[in-house]
């Protein structure tokens, strides 16, 4: 598709990925407009960048558009979407447009997995940038000091976070595919783990026969690699890429990047948590397969300071308790966040958790109870419904009651962010840490604290 001079409208432009796509279209010389049900600073930043922001109810302009792109959260009865279809204006869901956009580049690098996609994608972009690669990065989060997850440095490589929700990543045809880990998620579109794994197998099938698959070592014989060359990463020497001489100080890790029995470069991570060792190994493995040298990889990873919303330090309360916000909304991610907090403080770990979607909370209830029980105290908020309608099963109060009955942690229920902030403040003091966890708007609690 020739993007130059086209008129494109984004319905639901407030999401991180949609904002990236809108900015990309501006870069490509298109006339770009957008609308969103919620006004936000991020949407206003798009307006400043040159995107025409319109009210969601405005439809008169639709007949002038060449294409309307909509996010998965947009309901079928959205006025602008209905107007486009009535006027026979082409419409594409975000995932289809992302696939179309990726075809404008020579090669695509797709980063998939239940956890870590945003961080690893950002790490690879940092490596590519240092190495002077021609690339565009599409990250599902924002780097410190940037208004967007879009990084524009040329059109040879397209480095993108590959989301499994609704099989979105199957619109991509990668040259390199990374599978970081696999834990069951998105019960609203996958009936079980096997159903989800089949989608990953299909992504691998879509990967170029001349490219490769980078995966965590335990997945090597679990995934259907379809004859693709594989590079593994892990914590032990049976992986192709692994760490050696790991040391820990001040909440951060230092180790040697090693590959096939040879120490390649020493790395001092600036991001906290043991899980970031695996993230760095995956980024190094991918970048190496794309032709980047060891020194550039280590230097870029050593200067990487993380992504907003991924174990992000927000300050301290007036009583001296540390405040950290993390996007964690799956039991596996909650466990990692609490473990990271345990390593950094001697006091108690107070968790404020906003469940994300009723279907996920309902399907993984036992796992949520188990993960949250690793904290010292928990405050549960109402479930952030996202694209779903309210149901008692899977609600925040439902989770709270399950923790009360089956959990092993002191638990409270807060009906709103203000009450959650007040409760967390009352319960904590100097030496403690307040973990604000969730993928919705729970970050507001951190701001209140």
Spatial shape: globular
**CATH superfamily caption of the largest domain:** Mur-like, catalytic domain
Oligomer: single chain
CATH class of the largest domain: Alpha Beta
Tell me the β content.
15-25%
Description:
With 449 residues, the protein is of the alpha/beta class. The chain has three domains: 7-94, Rossmann fold; 105-302, UDP-N-acetylmuramoyl-L-alanine:D-glutamate ligase (3-Layer(aba) Sandwich); 312-448, Mur ligase, C-terminal domain (Protein-Tyrosine Phosphatase, Chain A, Alpha-Beta Complex). Helices cover 33% and strands 23% of the residues. The protein has 14 helices and 21 strands. It has a seven-stranded mixed sheet, with helices on both faces. Strand 2, helix 2 (41-49) and strand 3 form a beta-alpha-beta unit. The radius of gyration is 22 Å and the shape is globular. The model has no long low-confidence stretch (mean pLDDT 95).
Overview in brief:
With 449 residues, this protein is α/β, with parallel strands linked by helices. Helices cover 33% and strands 23% of the residues.
